[in-house]
Amino acid sequence: MAGPFDNPFGLSALALPLREQRLKVLSSNLANADTPGYQAQDFDFQAALRGAEAALHGLAPRPAGGSPTVAAAAMGLATAPDYSRYVSTRRALQGSLDGNTVDSETEHAAFGRAVLEYRASLTFFEQRVRGLMTAITGQ
User: pLDDT higher for 25 or 13?
Assistant: First the structure.
């Protein structure tokens, strides 16, 4: 049975590495905006968070992966999780002659929003750490 001290950082510890992964996917889209044939991708944050929660509570198998990372440690995993199942190809809003499906304006807007969401998650995490430090030190 999971107790309140099993994951003292709550969802923030799960959300940060997932938000970071979404930023990586969106930045890859922006970097390849002029690459012929490149297919824009997106990261399903909600599905990844549900999967991470299920793995944390033992309701789903833990993702396989490579070497240990800070993100893996935050999620209670021994190795880096494989996020590829949450990455999907985004359909083009308007076709291009070279087959590239990246729409720069859409990607910039999505990246800006993802940065704000990452910063909000980081703020929640920082507040949680401050609260725990206050509880530990009594100050």
Answer: 25
Q: Phi and psi for 65 in degrees, rounded to 5?
A: -175, -165
Per-residue pLDDT at 28 exceeds 90: yes
87: enclosing H helix or E strand: strand 87-89
- In this prediction, what percent of the chain has a pLDDT beyond 90? 45
Amino acid letter at 56? L
Which H/E stretch holds residue 89?
strand 87-89
Contact between 112 and 27 (Cβ < 8 Å) = no
Residue 17 · residue 71 · CB < 8 Å: yes
Structure tokens given for 83: 């996020």
Q: How many angstroms separate the CA atoms of 108 and 92, rounded?
A: 15
Q: CA–CA separation, 21 vs 48, rounded Å?
A: 10
- Is residue 66 very low, low, confident or very high in pLDDT (cuts 50, 70, 90)? very low
